[in-house]
Amino acid sequence: MGLALHYAPLPDGSVSAKFLGHSALEGYSGLLHGGVIAAMLDGAMTNCLFARGIRGLTAELKVRYHESVAASEEVFLQAWLDDDAHGLFQLRANLTQGGEVKASATGKFMKQHE
Question: Structure pTM?
Fold first, then answer.
């Protein structure tokens, strides 16, 4: 059981996805659970690497919750690669709803060796 997000690459090198939640993903009544929000931001950054043909593993994730997120309203996710140094990738992501940033994250990812 996953979130089934489908990411699309954008011309600026970022990736984006839309998502509509439901009551099973609520923390408090009517609000998307913070852990679900963190997972979506982490997944957005991972998919930004996938779009570049890079398989990465999360080494560090910092999430900032700006405002609550309504579970039954569509959210928009976007992630960008900020830096690539010696196999450590630094990314950032935003979750917006109604045109406002509701949560943001930064992450460091290690290149997965096969």
Answer: 0.94
